[in-house]
Design goal:
The structure is a single chain. The protein is an alpha/beta fold. It contains 10 helices and 5 strands; from the N terminus they run βαβαααααβαβααβα. Strands 2-3-1-4-5 form a 5-stranded parallel β-sheet, sandwiched between helices. α1 crosses α10 and α5 packs parallel to α9. The protein starts with a strand and ends with a helix. The structure holds cytidine-5'-monophosphate. The site of cytidine-5'-monophosphate (C5P) has 15 residues, from α2, α5 and α9. It is found in: Cytoplasm. This is Cytidylate kinase. It is an enzyme of class 2 (transferase).
Length: 201
Amino acid sequence: MAFTIAIDGPAAAGKGTVGRRLAAHFGFAHLDTGLLYRATGRRMLDGEGPVEAAQSLRPGDLDAPGLRTPEVGQAASRAAALPEVRQALVDFQRAFAARAGGAVLDGRDIGTVICPEADVKLYVTATDEVRAARRLAELTASGHDIGYDEVLADLRQRDARDSARAAAPLKPAEDAVRLDTSKLTIEEAVAAAIAEVERVQ
Ligand code: C5P
């Protein structure tokens, strides 16, 4: 039976890590939907129109190198404000959510728009400073030369744009369970998420 877990929240709050670990724990598939928008943003930076890019994404686009940079994140966020771009990505996400073995999707509008009937909805947050420090550590570990202030400004700018847009803005679904990971280790955050899934399973 399809069992769907929707995880939403602002940039670098821990959605991806919690999503991946939850999926591994329950044997579900995991989709980081931000990659769809990042791949679209990447192709936009290469000169393609965002709508055409979103409509013709190929699986290989999702594991292209360099998708995690702030520059691509900003392009993704600009593309993501366009209703036609979002529309082009809906069917793929819904089909993924409906797979028989169970699925975890993380993004900004999974619990509100893509999977309003999800079995579990989590809204993962952390303070701006904690999120910036975590993202800085990730970027530095993968060889990027960037400072804390720049990372913090980037996250805040994307969150503001993602929250203010008319099309599927970033916001918690009414029935989402909030998980603030600011003071939690990864293990604690994952344990809290697992407990929430087990409560409804
Ligand atoms: O999750 P990530 O930070 O990689 O997402 C990059 C951008 O893609 C976000 O800032 C947001 O604008 C967009 N996005 C979205 N809806 C999703 C996932 C990501 O609008 N479900």
